[in-house]
Amino acid sequence: MSIIYRKSLKGIDEMAFKTHGLPMRLMSYMMVVDGETGVDQLAANHPQLPSLAAVLQGLVEQGFLEVTGNTANVVQMNTARVSNGANMPPAAPVQMPVQMPAPMQAPVQAPMQSMQQTGYSPELEILKGNMVKDVSGILGADAAPVIQKIQNCRTKDDLFASMMGIKKIITIYANAGLAEKFAARYQSLI
User: Fold this and answer.
1) CA distances from residue 37 to 34, 41, 82 in whole angstroms, order as listed
2) Which residues contact 71 (CB under 8 A, 6 or more apart)?
3) Which of 19, 114, 117, 143 could serve as a FRET partner for 137 with CA atoms 20 to 30 Å apart?
4) Euclidean distance between the first and final Cα of the chain, in Å?
5) Which residues sit opposite 4 in a β-bridge?
6) Pairing relationship of beta strands 3-7 and 65-70 according to DSSP bridges
7) The pTM is what?
8) Which value, in Å, is the radius of gyration of the alpha carbons in the chain?
9) Are strands 65-70 and 80-81 parallel, antiparallel or unpaired?
10) What's the CA gap between 128 and 120, in Å, rounded?
11) Which contiguous run of DSSP H or E holds residue 67?
12) Counting runs of H as helices and runs of E as strands, what totals does the chain give?
């Protein structure tokens, strides 16, 4: 009997955005985790990764990986297959309240120069709102960290850089087709 791990949302975020600064050596351990292969088999398949079981357990403790089961109960698990090969337990549809950015309106008397100084861009806020809506629809309850990244963008360049990472997350959590449609939609707008 061998433990089976999958990447947590924090782990997927790290793989896509490198937000937590996980060393490349540890990233190589995360890359071998597929959500369906037990630790014993992973160690046999990747002898170049020493102390695999201990390192993976450390990544669990840091929140980058999570336990999905063990090889003894793989057949009994009621799971859904996703595009990255990970097994994910089916979830009941959850309607997550999304905090859409309130429409921002500049005062009628405000000169254009003061709007530029504050960094406010109506076009950017509309793009961010649309991205939040799309990401919420695609990722559901797992969208909160991605939404936060979108809302933290202050320029179109920031938004474009985030969009490329979000595309990776959608590919992993949903599928490559949705990720391509998402990226195509916003590449032309940004």
Assistant:
1) 6, 6, 14
2) 1, 2, 4, 38, 40, 41
3) 19
4) 50
5) 38, 69
6) antiparallel
7) 0.46
8) 20
9) unpaired
10) 12
11) strand 65-70
12) 9, 4
The amino acid sitting at 124 is L
- Single-letter amino acid code for the residue at 64: F
Residue 23: both structure tokens together = 């060393």
Instruction: Quickly tell me which residue has 């840091």 as its tokens.
Output: 62
Q: Along the 190 residues of the chain, how does pLDDT read in single tens digits?
A: 789 999 888 888 888 888 888 888 898 899 999 888 999 999 999 999 889 999 999 999 999 999 888 876 554 444 444 555 555 554 444 444 444 444 444 444 444 444 444 455 778 888 888 888 888 888 887 888 888 888 888 888 888 888 888 888 888 888 888 888 888 888 777 6
Annotate 123-147 with DSSP letters as a single string: HHHHHHHHHHHHHHHHHGGGGHHHH
Instruction: Give the integer Cα–Cα distance in Å for 31 and 67.
Output: 15
| Sequence spans of domains, the chain | 3-88, 112-187
Write down the residue that tokens 């999905």 correspond to: 68
Residue given tokens 């959608």 in the structure block: 170
